[in-house]
Write a structure and sequence with these properties.
The protein has six helices and five strands; from the N terminus they run H-E-E-H-E-H-E-E-H-H-H. By secondary structure, the chain is α+β, with helices and mostly antiparallel strands. It has a five-stranded mixed β-sheet with strand order 2-1-3-4-5. It has two domains: about 120 residues, Cytidine Deaminase, domain 2 (3-Layer(aba) Sandwich), CATH 3.40.140; about 35 residues, no CATH class. The radius of gyration is 19 Å and the shape is globular.
Length: about 170
C-alpha cells in the first residue's frame, strides 16, 4: 500500500506530540511514535522504569494501541526522538513492527526540529524472522523434527502445550 506524503507528515506530527508525554526520568531520552493501521492513526510515547528492562519503547506502545483496537496490519510508522540526529527504531521494535507490517511499509524517523529519514521496514530489518519461519520449523515438518537427547523428557508444560495444539 502506498502511503501519501501528507499521511507521513500526519504521523510525524502525532509522534512529535506523543513524545511530549514520554515518561523518561532516567535517560531523559523522550521518544514518540505513531503507526497507521486500517486508516487510523495510533500514537504513544516511551515509558521508562527504574528497572530498565521493564521500560517500553514508544514504537511498541503504538503497536500495542493499534493491536488492542483490533488492527492486525500496520501500513506506516513514524518515530520522533533525538534532538540532533533522527533516531531509528531499536532492534526489538523493528522485530515487533515486522510482526504486523510488511517489509514495504514506509518508516519515517525524525528529530524534533524536523530533520527526517525515510526508509522501509525491510531496509531496517532485512530477512526478518517471522511466522513463516516458525511454521517451517514446526515439529513434524519435513526435515525439522525436534530432537531430544535419549532419556530426556519434555516438561509437563511442554507436554500439555503439545496436546492442546494438536501436535
Amino acid at each position: 500500500m502506498a502511503v501519501a506524503k501528507n499521511a507521513v507528515d500526519r504521523l510525524l506530527r502525532a509522534a512529535a506530540e506523543a513524545r511530549t508525554r514520554a515518561y523518561a526520568p532516567y535517560s531523559g531520552f523522550a521518544v514518540g511514535a505513531a503507526v497507521l493501521a486500517n486508516g487510523r492513526l495510533y500514537s504513544a510515547a516511551n515509558i521508562e522504569n527504574s528497572a530498565f528492562p521493564l521500560s517500553v519503547c514508544a514504537e511498541r506502545n503504538a503497536v500495542a494501541a493499534a493491536v488492542s483496537s483490533g488492527a492486525r496490519r500496520i501500513d506506516a510508522i513514524a518515530v520522533v526522538g533525538g534532538d540532533t540526529r533522527p533516531t531509528a527504531p531499536c532492534g526489538g521494535c523493528r522485530q515487533v513492527l515486522a510482526e504486523f507490517a510488511p517489509a514495504s511499509a514506509p518508516v519515517a524517523y525524525a528529530t524534533r526540529s524536523g530533520k527526517r529519514v525515510m526508509t522501509t521496514l525491510g531496509a531496517l530489518l532485512p530477512d526478518a524472522f517471522s511466522a513463516r519461519d516458525l511454521k517451517e520449523a514446526r515439529p513434524g515438518s519435513k526435515g525439522n523434527r525436534a530432537v531430544r537427547a535419549p532419556g530426556k523428557r519434555r516438561s509437563a508444560a511442554r507436554a500439555r502445550a503439545s496436546r492442546t495444539s494438536g501436535r
